[in-house]
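REQUEST FORM: STRUCTURE PREDICTION
Request ID: SP-0412
Submitted by: Lab K.M.
Chain count: 1
Length (residues): 253
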Amino acid sequence: MNETQLLSGKTILVTGASAGLGKACAERIARLGGRVVLVARNGERLRAVCESLEGEGHTFFSQDITDYPALTTLVDRSAENGPVYGFIHSAGMEITLPLRNMRSSDYESLFAVNVIAGFELARLLCAKKVRDAAGGSYIFISSTMGLVGQSGLVGYCASKGALVSGVRAMAAELSSKNIRVNCVCPGHVEGTPMSDHLFATLTDEAKSAISVSHPLGLGTPEDVAHACVYLLSDQARWVTGTALSVDGGYTMV
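STATUS: Completed
RESULT:
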């Protein structure tokens, strides 16, 4: 198969698609022949990304994914032009605070975006009326922080770890529908709104320490997008329930 047709005929929904990892995933999917349903809150940026994509048939929806009742309509509209084969939950948020300053509302906000919204979308997308009869592939963007701990990131680590464990259970449950479910766990990626915000608050010494902790250097959104496209494609037909580290060696040191 020509690589440019690797995802031909497949409709993929991507959350957080207006910037960062989600935008890179949408661009890569479109380049490989897939149709993308882009979802994010910023409608203006979302439209610009959608209009820049290669290929045809892409759509976008400006949507707060923590408005759970509205997700049913979002999924139904996403399937109007054909069943939805794949899903990348790239939308996410981070709160950096020591444990003593964390409040219950902080945990609720983190889990609402990072975990619950994605799980709700997966629940709706696996319904018979919208899913692809051939099966599917669902991908949740976790983090190395879902695999290891770090001071000041209790809530964030907990939410990303919940994706890793939840995906294992979801993969087991959806295997009978030939739907594969996996996590991608990136290390520190440059050029995303989250990383740009973090780096703006750090000293040069702290920035250097982050870079050194990744033996292959810091990553790019495209590095993560390549991994996601592999998991979406038929080349990963025998891969499910995994947490794929894409981290330049961060978790090996």
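NOTES: Helices lie at 20-31, 43-52, 71-78, 104-125, 154-174, 193-200, 204-212, 221-232.
Reviewed by: T.R.
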